[in-house]
Amino acid sequence: MESLDLRVLEDARTWRQAGFAVTLVTVVETWGSAPRPPGALLAVRADGVVSGSVSGGCVEDDLIARTKAALNQPLTKQSSMPSMIAYGVSKEEAARFGLPCGGTLRLVQEPLLDTGWIDAVLQRTAEHQLVARTLTLSNGISVLTDGRRGQAMHFDGLTLTTLFGPRWRLLLIGAGQLSQAVAVMATALDFEVLVCDPREEYAHTLFDRPLPNVRRVLGMPDDVVRELQVDAHTAILALTHDPKLDDMALLEALTGDAFYVGALGSRRNQATRKQRLAEHFDLTMAQLDRLHGPVGLRIGARTPAEIAVSILAEIIEAKNTRVTAPAVSSNASCAVG
């Protein structure tokens, strides 16, 4: 699950603690070209305020009206239990709600009566744990367990198991001009951005003005990589052009679980770097092959901002094609945006 969905949980918890009635809605199955994938979340407050999306805007108005009306009625045993709702069952209904290509959505909606499980999910994901939540529709009871890498969302009509993962994290080695451009764009892409550069003159240049959601990590790069306990939700990018800093960080990164490891430099520099890492640090060819370089997609980038776009495009490609598991284990098809 993307961290944007974790934000939906944060909003739902805040609203509930403020005294509002709240319903959570989860996409559980899609057919055709449904706009949002299984697992997508929407929180609806009793006054109609929403967070998240389940259809990209196709059915939200109708769903919000239904949910708002239900939330403003006295709570009964039946209305306090999770329930199913479907849109686009017929071609006519799909056309009425604007679902493309006759798409169909099946949703589970559950009144949020207890926020304790949200507290636990947010705490565990902040610690970079993967969490699975299994909800039993007949009684509304949910159980949290450790999620498994590659585990898919599962819905069998009786229980719904959804996965909550940590935020995607980007560690930048180096605080130069390119790092600043990458950091700003990466925060817009919802990455948690960390910057490590022991060279004070560079670090001051980057952090002299506030950079929201960008955090400096003190220490030598290899120590920082080791202490971060890098996982499969982490990308590491070496941008200093200084082998004393880049190489030691790459040594730690290439032997860990990061989904992406890249380093700035020309083809010649990359070949020299790989040879140096192989000779002096005994890295295997499989580990060296994980190193992206020259870093970024080939789009003819020239300016720091353009290079940052090419680098982040390559990181997104790696995240979406090599890491993200299938969204649901059912007869549902993957949605397209």
Task: Give your account of this protein's structure.
The chain has helices at residues 3-17, 60-71, 91-97, 116-126, 177-188, 200-207, 221-227, 243-254, 267-281, 285-288, 304-323, and strands spanning 22-31, 41-45, 50-52, 83-87, 104-111, 131-136, 142-146, 154-155, 159-164, 169-173, 192-196, 214-216, 234-238, 260-263, 291-292. The protein has eleven helices and 15 strands. The strands form three sheets. A six-stranded parallel beta sheet has the order 12-11-10-13-14-15, with helices on both faces. The chain has a five-stranded antiparallel beta sheet with strand order 3-2-1-5-4. 36% of the residues lie in helices and 22% in strands. The longest helix is centred in the C-terminal third of the chain and has 20 residues, at 304-323. The chain is of the alpha/beta class. Helix 5 (177-188) crosses helix 11. The protein folds into two domains: 3-164, no CATH class; 169-322, 3-Layer(aba) Sandwich (Rossmann fold). It starts with a helix and ends in a 14-residue tail after the last helix.
- Would you tell me the overall average pLDDT? 83
Q: State the end-to-end distance.
A: 16 Å
Spans of at least 5 consecutive residues whose pLDDT stays below 50 are 324-337
Q: What is the radius of gyration computed over CA atoms, rounded to a whole number of angstroms? A: 23 Å
Query: Shape from CA axes?
Result: elongated
Most strands sheet: 6 strands, parallel
How much beta, percentage-wise? 15-25%
The side-by-side strand order for the widest beta sheet comes to 12-11-10-13-14-15
Estimate the helix proportion, in percent.
Answer: 25-40%
Count of spatially separate domains: 2
- Sheet/helix structural class: alpha/beta
The ordered H/E elements are HEEEHEHEHEEEEEHEHEHEHEHHEH
